[in-house]
Amino acid sequence: MGAQAQHRPRRVRRDARRPRREVRRGRDRGRRLRRVLLVHGAGRDRARTPRRPGLRRVHLGAGHHGQDRGAGGGRPRPAAHRHRPSARVADRRSPRRACRGRERPDPRAGGPVIAAGAYERVAIVTGGGQGLGRAYAARLAGAGARVAVVDVDGDAARSAAEAIAADAGADRVSAHEADVTDEDQVGAFVGAVAERWGRVDALVNNAGGALLPSAPFDSFSRADWTRVLEVNLTGQWLCATAVVPHMRAAGHGKIVNVSSTMVSKGLPVGLAPYVAAKAGVVGLTRALARELGPDGIRVNAIAPGYIPVETRKTVHTPQAAQALRERMKAEQCLPVVGVPDDLCGAVEFLCSPASDFITGQIVNVDGGWAHG
Ligand SMILES: NC(=O)c1ccc[n+]([C@@H]2O[C@H](COP(=O)([O-])OP(=O)(O)OC[C@H]3O[C@@H](n4cnc5c(N)ncnc54)[C@H](O)[C@@H]3O)[C@@H](O)[C@H]2O)c1
């Protein structure tokens, strides 16, 4: 015991390892810091902060509301605290990005995407001419965004845009006839939106649907299978590909993909191509979130439950639709039939700065059907 104590190395005071001057400087800084009052948010908070002698104010950025938000996108931070890619992270950049000769932008640097009533940000909603997409477009316009309604059905897109314009104003909405599976048409509407409003802040990848009558999995033709995947999955990839350069340039962006709660259980039987495509959307969402996070682009998906929309005629017979509605209602945690408005809150949230720390997520908006 005594011998052990003898051989125990003497504890060296931490400070003793540093030169004296450095130790003193550290202590002085500690004292100085204790005298500093950190005030988050200018204006609003400043007015409320009591003045106390000996306290210095340090403003870390603007408040959560208003147009003078700092570069922190709703989370004011001192510049020194913001994430900077380390040398090792920078080395892992793809050659394409590395050779651009500039550092990655700070993922938080772009500020908010859509803040209710305060910002003039720009959102694209595909399949916005009718059904759920039309509801999303109206909600985002109501939240203060400029909205581009895209649909393969040009009349539907124009009619939705007119209805939105009646509330929000004609300068806040545009209509585009385009097929999301056609690369040129996608490039054209994204280009037109960027030219008109100078930016693309959010994309709601909504165009799609089961498209074909419910049938056994092995009865679909190859062409039918491919078409369902093209519209529901490839179209989302094409639209993301077209908007990302604009978002990268701005250092921020929000992509909201539309999957389906059906993916979690493979139901209803008879929609194999659709369920497969919407499961692909889950993978696409996670992959893009990983790849685009360093550029400040958030990618999430919603997985809606069964929401009867007036325009859906092709997939289920009226009797089958009624049976599905009742079955879903009985199996949900919430025994109610969903309406388009039930999804709009999630879409608005995922396009807003309130969700800035959320990416790669699949949000089931289904009354608790999938995981209830
Ligand atoms: N309604 C539901 O119960 C439900 C549930 C889960 C997921 N979803 C998904 O939500 C989205 C909207 O569904 P909905 O019920 O409103 O359907 P809907 O058929 O009423 O609307 C879909 C819209 O997309 C447009 N569209 C179709 N193909 C297109 C293409 N190639 N290019 C551009 N536009 C195209 C259509 O013209 C239509 O306006 C779809 O992706 C659908 O799979 C719907």
TrEMBL record:
SUPFAM superfamilies, alphabetized: NAD(P)-binding Rossmann-fold domains (SSF51735)
Chain intervals with Basic residues compositional bias: 7-37, 49-59
Provenance organism: Actinomadura soli
Positions of region (Disordered): 1-112
Gene Ontology terms, MF aspect: oxidoreductase activity, acting on the CH-OH group of donors, NAD or NADP as acceptor
Protein name per the record: SDR family oxidoreductase
Entry similarity comment: Belongs to the short-chain dehydrogenases/reductases (SDR) family.
Any single Pfam family the record assigns to this protein: adh_short_C2
GO BP terms: fatty acid elongation
Keywords: Oxidoreductase
Keyword Ubl conjugation: no
